[in-house]
Automatic annotation (TrEMBL):
Coiled coil: none annotated. This is Thymidine kinase. Pfam families: TK. It catalyses: thymidine + ATP = dTMP + ADP + H(+). GO terms for cellular component: cytosol. It comes from Sphingomonas ursincola. It comes from the Bacteria. It is an enzyme of class 2 (transferase).
Length: 191
């Protein structure tokens, strides 16, 4: 039985590089993986998954209305498909997470999702919440806080490096906008 995986972490834990390594491993064995990423995350160019260490690969784009199951089923009709890899999975809708589960259950293709667990206000993203609820396997990737402890929180900062406490849940950015921290230092920076 194919399984639905959710690899989750704070910012800067290597989620995208881990996904790209998985894609490389499938390709190296002559197997085909289908890569997906959020359409509005165009920090490194649309239709591309890029890691901070320079790895990159082309990817299909999903928007809230994208039917991922239908797209995968259509692709599968033309060539064998061994795995589906989804970056920025926190931006999946609840419906899309269930579509990923259907890919596993009905098409018998494993789906590996990579994303943030929580936002800058320590709230679950909708996609992450649904993945935590229904994924077959949950894997926490580790990031490191400035104190050396495990970083589990994402602090949003302004241009001066001050903590941002309010705003839209989604604001695309990298190290210039977010800092991965342990809970203790996250709470201290918000105080």
């Amino acid at each position: 039985m194919a399984k639905l995986y959710f690899y989750y972490a704070s910012m800067n834990a290597g989620k995208s590089s881990t996904l790209l390594q998985a894609a490389f491993n499938y390709a190296e064995r002559g197997m085909r993986a289908m890569l997906w990423t959020a359409a509005f995350d165009d920090r490194y160019g649309a239709g591309q998954i890029t890691s901070r260490i320079g790895l990159k690969a082309p990817a299909h784009l999903f928007e809230p209305e994208t039917d991922i199951f239908a797209a995968v089923a259509l692709d599968l009709a033309s060539a064998p498909l061994d795995c589906v890899l989804v970056d920025e999975a926190q931006f999946l809708t609840k419906t899309q997470v269930f579509q990923c589960a259907r890919i596993c259950d009905e098409l018998r293709i494993p789906v590996l999702c990579y994303g943030l667990r929580t936002d800058f206000q320590a709230e679950l993203f909708p996609g992450s919440a649904q993945l935590l609820a229904i994924a077959d396997h949950l894997v926490e990737l580790k990031a490191v806080c400035e104190c050396g402890a495990k970083a589990t929180m994402n602090l949003r900062v302004d241009a001066a490096g001050h903590a941002v406490k309010q705003g839209a849940q989604t604001e695309i950015g990298g190290n210039d906008r977010y800092i991965a921290l342990c809970r203790k230092h996250f709470m201290a920076r918000l105080a």
